[in-house]
Amino acid sequence: MFQRLRPALPTVALLGLIVYFVFHGLTGERGLLLSSQRDAILNARSKELVELRQRRVDLEARARLLRDNSLSADLLEERARSLLGFADPKDYVIRETP
What we know:
Elements: H1 2-5, H2 9-27, H3 35-65, H4 73-84
């Protein structure tokens, strides 16, 4: 009986490999059916990247103002007051609980 099936074994093995690769090409980690999910993740990460770049630009600008050659007295005073917890007697202080 095995002799009758022997000529068909390469064809069955090739068919099995084709089915395997087609299945994983459609449903695998990078398959065609998951492309919309990948696009959604890419869009979310792109938005996050834009926000992080904007935050970095803002932080770099604030750091530039605190350097020795271009020291901003207002920014320095603001940072000192926030870190030390002091306020000017003329200021209105509104305390918020985090």
